[in-house]
Structure formats: structure tokens, C-alpha cells
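WARN  no MSA supplied for this record, continuing single-sequence
INFO  ligand: magnesium ion
INFO  echoing inputs
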Amino acid sequence: MIGVDEALERILAAFSPLPAENVPILDALGLVLSEDVAADNDIPPFPNSAMDGYAVRADDTNGASSDEPAGLRVTGYARAGSPSDERVTGGTAIRIMTGAPIPNGADAVVRFEDTDESTRGRAFAADLVARVLVCRSVRPGENVRPTGEDIRRGDIPLRAGTRLRSPEIGLLAAINRATVSVQRRPRVAILSTGDEVADVEAELRPGQIRDSNGYLLAARVRLLGGEPMLLGIGRDAIDDLMARLDAIRGADLIVTSGGVSLGDYDVVKDALRSRGEVAIWQVRMRPGKPLAFGQVGGTPLLGLPGNPVAAAVSFEQFGRPAILRMLGRRDLAIPTVEATVAERIENRGGRRHYVRVVVAGNAREGYSAQLAGPQGAGVLTSLVRANGLLVVPEHLEVAEPGAKLPVQMIDWDGV
Ligand code: AMP
Ligand code: MG
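INFO  complex generated
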């Protein structure tokens, strides 16, 4: 038997970041930037109003209050996308909408709420009021968003290594980048195995079950930023498996499920062994234990156990970090919180036990973890219910209620 950490270390040694390519920014969601991105313009590119109101000279509002308002003559109108070409001079104001360029001569904006407009009711562009009463003084620059407030020309708002979430995609658009260089998506070939396994909608023969692993793994690969290739279901026959593996083209990783245990028909391991480049390990973990890892035709192969939860949990520990490394991610660890165990959990046999739990709480008040249901390796519904995997260490035979243990938050991978 080997430990989980040792297995992970050996697996990760086979992966490095994939080459970069240019993609449209929306296709880069969730991927990792492979270039420093510089801004060749100021954002915003011109000073503009942060409020709906009147562009003024701040000096003209000195000492203004509701009792002694400052009266200004309104000479024009500025709205977003349509600058006013009037100039604000002493005693005048220009009606201005949020986002409109600040007119020449003005250095501040008075909000409608601080004028007599709030009591008088709204005027519209069509019937521009001739005079406005300002009921509060403004400082120079007040309610004005200056040029370059967000980003200055020449700044590097995004560095290589950044994972692109929706705010980063928006920022790229803001600085006029249509495409961006990212580590390309890993292509992950997924092969389910087992004579008893049938695809969704295929007719079931007696004793057959549906392939859930293929779809679960493909969905996970896609969410992480990889490109899954579903290869269907291999028979429990060495020839069939070898032929399917040999036919795989263009994959950066092959993931199989099933056939690596000790049963009479667990022939995936024999097929893989016959190549001499794949090792079969017994990993000190539960669920899961048998695991295959090596190379087939120069492509890394990860062989997961067949039980759906064992496959899913093993994939989280070994497949996820391999994919993240290919994507150029640096932090490969699963986001983990410490939670208080609500129930007694047994852990005999010296294996690291990943327990499906529902985590509630928050960082400030602490987290608690409750069993998400029966923990059999084939019970997918308790994985459906769970948002975390509580990790009971190898040496701990019983976790008593109240014990604090780490929980891997398996649904914190979104973007
Ligand atoms: P194995 O590791 O091949 O012995 O399979 C262990 C258990 O997982 C058996 O009960 C299989 O029927 C089940 N199993 C294997 N592959 C799949 C799959 N793709 N989808 C759902 N269950 C599976
Ligand atoms: Mg099988």
C-alpha cells in the first residue's frame, strides 16, 4: 500500500503546464493567463460624472445651503455618449447624466438630490429648466470620476498566472482585448469499463447498470476547464481494452474507471500491465484503494476504481490536480476548511477516510459537518447531497462528535 500523498506526488511528476494559445476572451473563462496584459489607454478615458445632476464650478456653490441656495443659470445638457460643447463659466451649470464627460470649465457635479429639483420634480432634456438652486456646497472633484481612476495607461492590471474569472473577462473587454493568451485546455479521454455497464438509453440486459462514471467524470473535467472526450464503455476483455486505448488520439490524459480491483474480470489492470508502463497501486484511502497510473503510448493514464463514489473521490485527489497543473494553475490543493464533526465516525483499517458531509456555517463563526447520508462506495445520492469531503486521517480510528477535522470543499471550484 502507498499513502495518498505519495501517490499524488508520483502522479503530479508526470504533468506540466500545456502550451499557450490565443483564444477569444469569453473562451478563456476559468483558464490561466500566460501573458502580462498591459493597458494602452486610461480607464475611464475621460473625466465623467458619477451622478445625475449639474456640472458646476465648485467655487460657485461655496456656502450654499437649503436656506441660502446658490442660483445658477442652466446653459446646456450632457448625457452619456453625448458630450456638451458648452462651457461652464461663473454662475452657470450644465445638466449632466451619469457617465457623461465633464464639460469644460466644470470641476464638480451637484446631485439632483442636492438641488431644488428634488422638491420641484424632475425636468427632462426636452424642457430644460433655465435655473437651478443648489442647496449644498461641493468640493472640486466631487462626484467626478477622473481619467484613469480605475486603470492608467501603461498599467499591467492582469499578470501571467492569473485565473480568469468573470471580473477579469470584463476587465479584458474594458481595455479592448478581444483575444488573450492562455494555457490551452487539457483534452481528457474518458473510458468506462465493465461488461455490466451500459450507456444512457441503451437497452439493459439482465444484470446491467448505467454508466454514471463516464458522465460524472466528463462533467467534472469540463467544470475544471478541461475538454472531456467520452469514449464509451470498454468490455472486460484485454483485446477490446487494448484496442480502445490504442485508438485514442490527441489526449493529454486518459481516465478509465473500473477493472483495477482484484476481481476475476478486473482486466483493465492486466491490459495496462501488459504494456509495462502502468503501475497498479493500493492507495491507503477510502472510498477507493486500487488505482492505476502510468503511460499508454506516451499519454498519462489514470485508472480509477469502478464504484461511482470511489471513482469521484479518487478523481478529486489525483485527477483534479493533474488537470489544474496542465492548465497552469499553481495552487493545486482542494479548498479546505476546518469543521466540527457532528456525528461519531469510525475509521478502522489505517486508511485516509473521505466522508461525504454537508458543511454549514461560515469562516467567522466556524463550520460544522454532518454526514450527507450512507457512505457506501456505490451510494451516489450522498455525494449529490454533500458539499464537502471530511478527511479522517489514517491513524484516527474514531472521530468523536466535537472533533475538528479538515473538510475539502468540493463545490468551491466555480468561476
Ligand atoms: P470494478 O472496479 O470494475 O470491479 O467495479 C466496481 C463496482 O462499480 C461494480 O459494482 C461496478 O458495476 C460499478 N461500476 C463500474 N463502472 C461503473 C460505471 N461506469 N458506472 C457506474 N458503476 C460502475
Ligand atoms: Mg468492472
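The chain has a mean pLDDT of 95.
INFO  checksum written, moving to next record
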